[in-house]
């Protein structure tokens, strides 16, 4: 289930301004398609194992220590279930199970626990978690569970076994990790405090064991073993490492499939034809390149044929690059690393679907200066990186093959809104939008508070796409009425009111949004920055539209200049409480 941000506006064509550089285009597409894996500082990026730098691994390790304890505990969040999003009328009611993955059920209790963890991490990282974001967070939570279920079922199919001894050891290790965090720099003092409350440290440990859900621990161990078995298939040599750090003097030709017309009667068929035409063109250009394999001839061909306007004028020149530095898929990087001739291609990127032809003018081995001293560690690190990549690819394969059925109407509607509509023909898009609105209506029967506000908010987005402004306004009014302390909803409602020429009502909504931001400011991210700054700027922009220059200036004055995170940024991990990297 690919996850995408909620974007207002039509879904029948590109909503972003065109980017002339093909390098920029493919980087943007790659970032969008890989959104769920995230960046280093995004919630999903922390979870993703596709990040390999030493600093990232340190951060991930610390975060795992902070949050991982909760994943094995059966009691985490259960006492808070009634407080999630408007109490029992928020989202604790509704279909149970929430979804099926093959023969397995995703029960509502597990879904709510996963959702609570996502909300906690959103708060920790300064990520938005208001009305407009709730269903996206819930879908990520559900995705986490469906992915885990698919991985567990695959582990069982592979014959992986977990014993009671394995579970006992894992629980003991987790408790010991928790103790190390709690004792900090003064283990003797911590031990004295424990012995004052318990007869001994062992008694304390024994009393922690029942808090762990052995079934969940067993499932996670099975997935861990599956992951290890996949990674262990990667066996690299010193020559493999040297190829990975060999820089290539490169030229490229990029062939981009044409965008299908927005009004194509069958978008899928139109896209398939565009892809096929691009491949035919790539094969033809490659044959021309083979007929005259020289640097000058390839440069002339790139100037004539390449779709990357940035490198096209330079004859496709990329300079001296290591394949891993290029924003292309792993398969293309491997083809470049393992190449021995001058021409490589045509090769298609699995994300952007662009076709590439490369000319390798020369190769230069670029070993680290301390290679002889750290050779074993460098090779091991590279093997770990490739193992992580292999596991990510394997997980993607499992996820795509999983038979997921979403039973909760609100979550089903959101998936339809975010994924299915954009892939459909214009005629089918209209049908799907109405189906999604009907499903949101079903979900409203058991939802209240912030959850109901989130459902109405998404209905408003659909009505806007359907060009039904009256119903859009009604849905936003309902959203604000169900949960009136969300500044984003007030701003969204104000924008729609301005479009409807209801300026007085719009001004009132903007004032309410501004007051809410002043009264309940967001927590700054541990990595710097404050999400409220963008909200103040948006309010100011709408006030400009309403010819309220003084109010707009007052709002912009609340935007704070960027500041370094406490403790000196990543090096000191100032936002991580008492944790420090030594």
Written overview of the protein:
There is one protein chain. By secondary structure, this protein is α+β, with helices and mostly antiparallel strands. It has three domains: 208 residues, Triger factor/SurA peptide-binding fold, CATH 1.10.4030; 121 residues, Chitinase A, domain 3, CATH 3.10.50; 156 residues, Serine Threonine Protein Phosphatase 5, Tetratricopeptide repeat. The protein is built from 23 helices and seven strands. The strands form two sheets. It has a four-stranded antiparallel β-sheet, sandwiched between helices. The protein is globular.
SSE layout and pairing:
Elements: H1 22-33, H2 43-47, H3 54-72, E1 99-101, E2 104-106, H4 108-124, H5 134-157, H6 164-183, H7 187-197, H8 201-208, H9 214-231, H10 238-244, E3 246-255, H11 267-291, H12 295-305, H13 309-312, E4 317-321, H14 330-338, E5 343-348, E6 355-365, H15 371-401, E7 404-406, H16 409-423, H17 426-444, H18 449-465, H19 469-482, H20 487-499, H21 503-519, H22 532-545, H23 549-556
Short summary:
The protein has 23 helices and seven strands. The chain is an alpha+beta fold and 582 residues long. It has a four-stranded antiparallel beta sheet with strand order 4-3-6-5, with helices on both faces. A three-stranded antiparallel beta sheet has the order 2-1-7.
Describe the structure using short key phrases.
single chain; 582 residues; alpha+beta; Triger factor/SurA peptide-binding fold; Chitinase A, domain 3; Serine Threonine Protein Phosphatase 5, Tetratricopeptide repeat; 3 domains; four-stranded antiparallel beta sheet; three-stranded antiparallel beta sheet; 23 helices; globular; disordered N terminus; disordered C terminus
